[in-house]
């Protein structure tokens, strides 16, 4: 390809003898500007008079964008070793967050790394670090959606919010199916093109069958996260153990003050001034799993039970959505009964 140059205006004389300014656009090898080679994204020099101008071409995007999480006992030289492994894979660190827990002596780290290295090459580069420091390393492509199974009962607000955010690309999850112990929310799932499985629970045998189907589906369809979106059943210890670290529940923050049915009516009668919600990991201890996110909204005496319920449902949806988003982005790390959140 012949380089194209724009010459400075030159003067010529028209028919009346008046100077006329013209500009010529033509191939030239005599121009004072020399072509810049952008091939392969290299850096070349262009000469302008006696000055050299360095021009950097845009670099091609890396083939992979990795999220790396690290949990281990804190030790000297750990960060240096981790970054050395990334350099070995020719990676560039885009984000880096770390935390030392003085209570447990554990070290937590989350990095976002761009590189052309595939998963096998990344793991090979990090393996010496894993062996030396005995660390738990998580590796995941940043744009890969988290496959999520949602469990529901009758309340629609949390499911509706998650399905909408998924369809809008605002939460990086993929919901292949919704399970419910009532058929009430099948139409909402269907509106978003998500299959709905309804399995009634009227006896302990029904509950066992429901949970067995959940465990089978998780294994058969590579489910990474199970969300209890106002699912009003207590999970068995067996299912809690099976889903350890990958199941999130949402509940109103009135617990344990307002247990049972109609918590917002109870709150209205007690004249509460704050309405809130808590998202937490599911454990065998009911509503006592590690807390991921909490939100509150101030209210006053003028709010009716229906208004309190509407406010509370909005808070629940926002809180659950935030917890799911952080999980999908691998921002949550466990430190015993606490969570480390790299926001």
Automatic annotation (TrEMBL):
InterPro entries: ACT-like_dom_sf (IPR045865), ACT_dom (IPR002912), Formyl_transf_N (IPR002376), Formyl_transf_N_sf (IPR036477), PurU (IPR004810), PurU_ACT (IPR044074)
Organism domain of life: Bacteria
CDD domains: ACT_F4HF-DF
UniProt-listed Pfam families: ACT (PF01842), Formyl_trans_N (PF00551)
Record-annotated active site: 287
Location of the ACT domain: 67-144
Coiled coil: none
Keywords: Hydrolase, One-carbon metabolism, Purine biosynthesis
GO biological process: 'de novo' IMP biosynthetic process; one-carbon metabolic process
Pathway(s) it belongs to: Purine metabolism; IMP biosynthesis via de novo pathway; formate from 10-formyl-5,6,7,8-tetrahydrofolate: step 1/1
Catalytic activity: (6R)-10-formyltetrahydrofolate + H2O = (6S)-5,6,7,8-tetrahydrofolate + formate + H(+)
UniProt keyword Manganese present: no
GO MF, one example: formyltetrahydrofolate deformylase activity
Protein purpose: Catalyzes the hydrolysis of 10-formyltetrahydrofolate (formyl-FH4) to formate and tetrahydrofolate (FH4).
NCBIfam families, A to Z: PRK06027.1 (NF004684), PurU (TIGR00655)
Name assigned to this protein: Formyltetrahydrofolate deformylase
UniProt lineage: Bacteria, Bacillati, Actinomycetota, Actinomycetes, Micrococcales
UniProt gene name: purU
């Amino acid at each position: 390809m012949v380089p194209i140059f724009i010459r400075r205006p030159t003067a010529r004389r028209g028919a009346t003898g008046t100077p006329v300014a013209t500009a010529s656009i033509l191939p030239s090898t005599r121009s004072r500007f020399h072509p810049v080679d952008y091939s392969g994204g290299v850096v070349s020099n262009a000469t302008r008079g006696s000055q050299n101008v360095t021009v950097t071409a845009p670099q091609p995007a890396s083939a992979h964008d990795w999220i790396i999480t690290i949990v281990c006992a804190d030790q000297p030289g750990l960060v240096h070793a981790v970054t050395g492994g990334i350099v070995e894979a020719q990676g560039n660190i885009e984000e880096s967050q770390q935390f030392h827990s003085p209570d447990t002596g554990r070290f937590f780290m989350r990095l976002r790394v761009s590189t052309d290295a595939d998963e096998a090459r990344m793991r090979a580069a990090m393996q010496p670090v894993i062996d030396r420091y005995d660390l738990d390393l998580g590796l995941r492509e940043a744009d890969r959606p988290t496959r999520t199974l949602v469990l529901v009962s009758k309340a629609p607000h949390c499911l509706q919010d998650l399905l909408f955010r998924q369809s809008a690309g605002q939460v990086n999850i993929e919901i292949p199916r919704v399970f419910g112990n009532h058929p009430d929310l099948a139409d909402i799932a269907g509106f978003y093109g998500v299959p709905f499985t309804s399995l009634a629970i009227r006896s302990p045998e029904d509950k066992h069958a429901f949970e067995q189907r959940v465990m089978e589906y998780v294994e058969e369809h590579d489910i990474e996260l199970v969300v209890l979106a106002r699912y009003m059943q207590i999970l068995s210890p067996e299912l809690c153990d099976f889903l350890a670290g990958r199941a999130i529940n949402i509940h109103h923050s009135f617990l344990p003050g307002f247990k049972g049915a109609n918590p917002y009516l109870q709150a209205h009668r007690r004249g509460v001034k704050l309405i809130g919600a808590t998202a937490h990991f599911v454990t065998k201890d009911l509503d006592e799993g590690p807390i991921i996110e909490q939100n509150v909204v101030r209210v006053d005496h003028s709010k009716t039970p229906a208004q309190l319920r509407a406010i509370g449902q909005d808070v629940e949806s926002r809180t659950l959505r935030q917890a799911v988003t952080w999980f999908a982005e691998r921002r949550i790390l466990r430190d015993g009964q606490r969570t480390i959140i790299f926001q």
